[in-house]
Amino acid sequence: MPQAVAGPEIERLIQLLARMPGLGPRSARRAALQLIKKRDTLLAPLADAMRVAVERIVVCRECGNVDTCDPCTICSDPKRDPTVLVVVEDVSDLWALERSGAVQARYHVLGGVLSALDGVRPEHLNIASLAERAANPEVTEIIIALNATVDGQTTAHYVTDAIKALGLKVTRLAHGVPVGGELDYLDEGTLTAAIRSRTAF
Amino acid sequence: MPQAVAGPEIERLIQLLARMPGLGPRSARRAALQLIKKRDTLLAPLADAMRVAVERIVVCRECGNVDTCDPCTICSDPKRDPTVLVVVEDVSDLWALERSGAVQARYHVLGGVLSALDGVRPEHLNIASLAERAANPEVTEIIIALNATVDGQTTAHYVTDAIKALGLKVTRLAHGVPVGGELDYLDEGTLTAAIRSRTAF
Description:
2 copies of one chain form a homodimer. By secondary structure, the first copy, chain A, is an alpha/beta fold.
């Protein structure tokens, strides 16, 4: 632990910044100095934006998204397709899908994936609430948009089992060559999946 | 520009975070999500620490350091050697020297270095105030602790000229092999300097 070189207020700011993902102790110090230098154009607006976030951001009780209203903007958007529910692991995945604009439906954030190693069990995830929402007769399709990792796919199977009795169409994301990807750099699993799911040209 | 995926408050937080050094648009989004998840343990304390920084941090009118008091903790510390002034480019350099604990003197932050390319001229730097402080009869030595870059060394020469008339001892940091450094990876300039300034074993 290096000795404190600035007043306790600055040291506290540095220590808190260092706990942000993507910043370590050294880059936090650099960031703090930049913030202090740009006090009026960056530090003050950022402090205000954070204060607003603390006070106003809530978790949507429908889907688990974070927003300033509950139900969230997506859940209360009447233009969304009410027949489809997209199951994602985390809010960041929801944001990624929204950025792509690929689907105009509602989401369901599980809040994690099953993991024996990390002790994450079904009751820790929002699976019961998914089953409730899926039971709504309006819903006809569940898109499982979980990461293509072992834990993600285990969870996908568990979720599929949990809602199987409802007789809904359950789909998952396609495996294949990423757009812009080069075959030489892809793993065998992806190539096998891409060949198996080949489409007419 | 990707479409906004969250409410305006969250988007604003992300945009401001993306302007911090070390964070880009993507890592800012990740950071924002982490902050929102750790609302009580990280986001709220960080917002408070930033608010305190906005309100209380001032630039020391003596040396140019940033602190919550003016003159700063270092300038008002009676245990510091009053005969030595260490000239640094930026507050980050002052912090680096303080972390090393190598010198127990006072500092003078120039606020930059001369640069023809960036249009930084002597009147943009705190050189006049340095000459004033150096004229204090208590001061007997000026340590020029500027970066060993072209601009840093140009500035060092300019500063030395500006205070030459006062007849003070003016020193600069030694050039040589960094502690832990391997000769094979060092440039010729450093090796030449290290040989020239060799010391008795």
